[in-house]
Amino acid sequence: MKRTKLVLDESLLLEATRLSGESTWSATVNRALKDFIRRANARQILSLRGSGAWDGDLGEMRAGRPSE
Question: Into how many domains does the chain fold?
Fold first, then answer.
């Protein structure tokens, strides 16, 4: 863990803590950072759509899966 001093908007921090259900400000900030990273990575994946970065047969991949 990295210990640091941050200057944050208190009203945003209180609202984020309330909405997230976290019990500490550190947990709230960590959760926000993890969520930001997850969304940023998802945007990068979406940008690959149609780029030919994946070469495979989706039907073949799904062939062995049980139907829902």
Answer: 1
